[in-house]
Amino acid sequence: MGETKDEIRLDWKECERWASTVLVRAGSSADQADAVAWGVAEGQAAGIATHGIVRLPQYCESLQAGAVNPNPEISVTGRGTSALLYDADGGYGYAPMRELVDELCDLAKTRGIAIGGVKDSHHFGAAWIYARRVASAGMAGIITTNASANLVGPGAVRAIVGNNPIAFVAPGGPQRPAICADVALSQVAFGRIRIAARLGQPIPLGWARGVDGQPTTDAADAVAAQLLEPMGGHKGFALATMIEILAGIMTGSPFGASSNAHAGRDGGVGHLAIVFDPAIFISRQAFEDSIDRLDDELRAAMTDSNAITLPGQREERARQQALECGLPIATSVWERLEKLEIPGLPRPQPISMVA
Q1: Positive or negative, the Cα torsion across 228, 234, 239, 242?
Q2: What's the sign of the alpha-carbon dihedral 277, 123, 315, 219?
Q3: How far apart are CA 115 and CA 144, in angstroms?
Q4: CB 3.0–4.6 Å: which of 44, 221, 225, 311 could bond 181 by disulfide?
Q5: pTM, full prediction
Q6: Contact by Cβ (8 Å): 327, 348
Q7: Contact, 332 vs 201, CB < 8 A?
Q8: DSSP reduced 3-state for 66
Q9: What's the pLDDT tens digit per position in 262-276?
């Protein structure tokens, strides 16, 4: 199941500048637009296309509707010896989360561990983009957020918690990229259901519910209902509920049925990050040697010697290719972005096309 794999390649920095200008034209302040453009470009580069350039129309619509604060005053409202709380002031989460993660990394270098939250925020893109910053600083950590309610619990007929993602990350070392597992907690990404609906194809039973709250194989019914089944049944739902508590309730942000990642002038979701230095437990050299050993053992258990073993390798390979060849964007997505055409602001021209 899927769309055409035809894609174009765009110059990374040119595309990022274009995205920022588009957001400014939609009403965003320049610094907020730059942060969002950075985030969607990073997501696109890593192959996390669902959190890449395709998000621009949605962001622009929210900004133009006044659903998201276009010029928030980001501030630190809580500070402890190893803890921080940022207030996103109803803006998107890219700028405050990036700033928070960088400050937590600095704190962890001197204090071993640091924890921080962002309150009253909105969508912050892929958790992977912040996890990678943690690993690049030589730290390990956890990144998570609550989201708009769309995950239906066992026995329920409506959603109360979101498909809350969580990313676990560890540094790879000088010769190894970041090791990162970034997972949402639904049985399948909602994007795959949208694709099936567009193509008029059924979906497997167990992916989603319909508007009547019952399991469905009708993709269009699932898109209308927006009720996703949790990964692992009650186990995935339990994890999502805990994230709702830690990232939503604990940061003082909207939670449960009140959460909304794309609307709420005063904010709709919260984020949480924990960063720590592996050196508080084990020497850097011993850590890197152990990662090498684990990687060797995983490879020895596989029939394909070139298989991807450690989490995050696929994203890092994609990002490296994007650095060398440009950002990959599906032609179908690029065509859907035509609605963002602005007089005097042409879209970036492809530097290559791949069939």
Answers
A1: positive
A2: positive
A3: 12
A4: 311
A5: 0.93
A6: no
A7: no
A8: coil
A9: 999 999 999 999 999
